[in-house]
Specification:
- This protein is globular.
- Among the domains are: 172 residues, no CATH class; 165 residues, no CATH class.
- The strands form six sheets. Strands 11, 14, 15, 16, 17, 19 and 20 form a seven-stranded mixed β-sheet that branches. A three-stranded antiparallel β-sheet has the order 1-2-3, with no helix packed on it.
- The protein is of the alpha+beta class.
- It has twelve helices and 20 strands.
Length: 518
Amino acid sequence: MSMRPKTPNRPKGPGASSDSTPGTRDTTADHVPRFPGISPGHDAHLPQRPAVTEQAHTPDARSPAIQIIDLPAGTHISPTTVYPISDYYLPSSVVERLPAADSRTGFRSIIAARKYVDLIDGGTVMLGSDLQGHFRARQPSELVPSGPRLERVEGTLQWRQVHERDSELLVTRRPREDDGQEQAGPSKRPRLPENTVEPWKDWGISAQHASPDGITIDGVHYKIVPRADAPSHPIAYIKNPAHPIYDFDLLQGILRRNVEQQPRGAIQVPPSHRWEVDPTLPFDRTLTDYVAAYFPELSDLSLLNVARKQFFLANGSHIATGAGLTTLRQVFNDWKTASITPKPDLADPLLMLSILQPGPGKGTSRILEVPEPGDQVSLQRLEFDPKKFREEWRYFISTQYAGDIKRFMEDLLKRNGYTVFEPTPAQSYPALVFTRTGHDFVFHMTLHRVHGHRVHIHASNERGYAPERLPELIGLPAMRAMQNAEAANKLIWLKGGGQISADRPDSVFIVRSEDPRL
């Protein structure tokens, strides 16, 4: 059984990299590397899994945001067969023994029959060709590789995953023991103690404590996460009765200490519409860890601020709802697959920023106060930690050229998943125009070096936004992207750069401002 969000029309990106365009969108999905277990009876140094068959999915742009597809009675529902790339990562002990990547192909090979490649996200996998000749991640036990498609990143020795579909969130149903669908063979797992694999079976409540808002599964009554204003939402989340409500801090703590105790999704199975618990964990890491996987150079406090803001936006309050948890799962899935997201304001921290208003300065100039990065749901500032890019920061503080600040910020944005239009060599009014895979908003950011807490905006800066100067200052392709985005009300104005202050650590900040031409 699958749940599919609505697939919106795919927006046009800034174009492919060439002499006349600023660069291609990077659709690489970042992942947190983890190493799978080793199956007994195989090579001890390589992960194994029985071969699986990839299933095709055809997105329907007219489908609702979440859709439960009712299957005819008796239809066999198979377990999910699309595995994450991280399931194919090699152990570090194996990677260390491989030779360096070939300068022509990027392959790392001990023998010609086995090829390995380094992924741009940090993992290393075995490579194989499927029946159509596409490169895919492969398990050594497979004749035909079962993993995601891979391609080499142009101009590097690294490889990345090729994403073949739009936004989609899967919820799977696995056969119950009484369904009579016994799974034989090496893929069948040994049975673990019941309360280890199904901890929710200890969450049942007595009939006298049951409420109309709860659900019943196999005769057991459960409390659920409130449905709020979405009572017909197709997923309910049963919860441990010891947890009265889930605010951000409680859910974050549960995910950190005991991920099995988080609320569990349940769906109604046709034709009887009985409830079944989805065996897949809604979240496999903390909410801040999800943010860190895709925005790796944010400061720890900014990671917390973004995750907290994201939680608030998804649920519409400080308390979790069933629809809000599903929305968070959808956003994290869209990050993972680099899909077009139906929730861009939850998927990009720059779209979460509050708009700051400048105040009066000397004469006709204005002043924009750079807010402190405190723990704030309003999210007035993004902060990147120079300790995560020490070498680049040392160079940044050693130079005063406008071209250098443009290159510094361009590289930082790219490392955190953005696609930047090629900066021009202009040394006045430094600014960048950039986008992000997953939505069609366009960002224009003026760049500053801040000593203290204020950005000084001089009246003469308005000359930098004169239409006749834009091709010189940001380039013609960036100007056209800005104009199209502004016509669609999707142009976002930002200010960013380095901040050095005597009373707090150095940082790189980004804030959202009003239209600077006003």
